[in-house]
Design goal:
Elements: H1 2-12, E1 18-21, H2 24-31, E2 39-43, E3 47-52, H3 56-62, E4 67-71, H4 75-85, E5 90-94, H5 99-105, E6 110-114, H6 117-122, H7 127-147, H8 157-170, E7 181-184, E8 205-210, E9 213-214, E10 217-218, E11 221-226, H9 233-251, H10 259-272, E12 284-286, E13 293-297, E14 310-313, E15 316-319, E16 323-326, E17 329-334, E18 337-340
Helix pairs in contact: 7-8, 9-10
Length: 351
């Protein structure tokens, strides 16, 4: 119940009777629940888990909670009744909750929106979480190794993506954490391109962005390849600029520094090389149960490096008419030391 005690410490300083958690990822983090319908009340003295009859036996077996309520009629109405009977008057709710949650509760409780309470706790991974994230990264790399032979001129983006997805499932991933990106040629200049039926051509950059999964935890990796056509000097320069920025950002990582300094290490190098206008996204982000979570590694980030963080480093350059390059690694910070969880080669591969 250590995670609940962290929440209770936050609640006691806010003069609230408890918080009603509706974000299904936060609920999984706190309880282990893997279903689709649930709410969790964490109070100063009680923890009440709400779900419906479909998950009754799952909940009875292994979830971490103190009291279980199987909702039989209208979900929010029954939750409200139970909380009123429990003496709850001042109730926190998640800042990102759906409006219907607020609308249903506002007449019965003194409500207060709480931003990032559970997410702040999720940011620091424990040993079990790190084991799962490492496994998710290993599954992603194993799947890619079995897919790599398909990266060649004449193959469609969709063929590579479907093959990689199949290999991720074969590697043990129960789900694909996000839509795989395979972007070639002009499409590679779009940071979040959608897979198309475009055939890879000579001279194309090919960006592949994918992730694995293990027990709900995910990984996020990107590699970029270049298909040879004999006239690739400028593209090699772009690639090597991104690679150097990636390495500079990783080299800058240490305990207690602001995350924005890591972003600066990558961004200033790219600016110095004349490509500053072509790097428009953050240098990285946290990874865990969600593929994008805290910390933010951006120029506007207020987060600091500390033990237990797992995050990406992914600078990129995207130029219309030429294409794009992104190189993304996953990093963890443990006992003040950084460790790269991704092992795939990063030096330019010309296929």
């Amino acid at each position: 119940m250590g995670k609940y005690n962290l929440i209770r410490n936050e609640l006691s300083g806010k003069r609230l009777d408890g918080i009603l958690i509706s974000d299904i990822v936060n609920i999984r983090y706190l309880t282990g629940f893997t279903g689709s319908t649930a709410m969790l009340f964490v109070g100063l003295k009680r923890v009440i888990f709400f779900t419906d009859f479909r998950y009754k036996y799952e909940c009875e077996d292994f979830l971490e909670y103190e009291e279980l309520v199987i909702v039989k009629t209208e979900f929010l109405r029954d939750v409200k009744k139970i909380l009123i009977s429990a003496g709850v008057r001042k109730l926190g709710f998640e800042y990102g909750a759906q409006y219907r949650v607020f609308e249903k509760l506002r007449k019965s409780f003194r409500l207060r929106a709480l931003k990032g309470l559970v997410e702040n706790i999720r940011m620091h991974k424990d040993e079990a979480e790190i084991v799962n994230i490492k496994l998710a990264a290993r599954r992603a790399e194993d799947a890619f190794d079995r897919t790599r032979k398909w990266i060649r001129a004449g193959i469609t983006e969709r063929k590579i993506a479907l093959t990689l997805e199949t290999n991720l499932k074969k590697a043990g991933c129960k789900r694909i954490p996000f839509d795989i990106i395979v972007a070639s040629g002009k499409n590679s200049a779009l940071p979040h391109a959608c897979v198309t039926d475009k055939k890879i051509q000579r001279g194309d950059f090919v960006i592949i962005d994918w992730g694995g999964e293990a027990n709900g935890y995910v990984s996020d990796i990107t590699r970029t390849f270049l298909i040879n056509n004999g006239n690739i000097s400028e593209k090699k320069k772009i690639y090597n600029t991104v690679l150097a920025a990636n390495r500079r950002a990783i080299d800058s990582i240490r305990n207690d520094i602001p995350c924005r300094e890591i972003d600066r290490a990558a961004r200033e190098y790219i600016i110095d090389k004349g490509y500053g206008n072509y790097f428009g996204h953050a240098t990285g982000h946290g990874v865990g149960l969600d593929v994008h979570e805290r910390p933010s590694v951006s120029s506007a980030s207020k987060d600091k490096m500390s033990d237990g963080l797992v995050f990406t480093i992914e600078p990129g350059i995207y130029i219309s008419g030429i294409g794009g390059v992104r190189i993304e690694d996953m990093i963890m910070l443990e006992r003040g030391r950084k460790k790269c969880l991704t092992t795939l080669p990063k030096s330019l591969e010309i296929l």
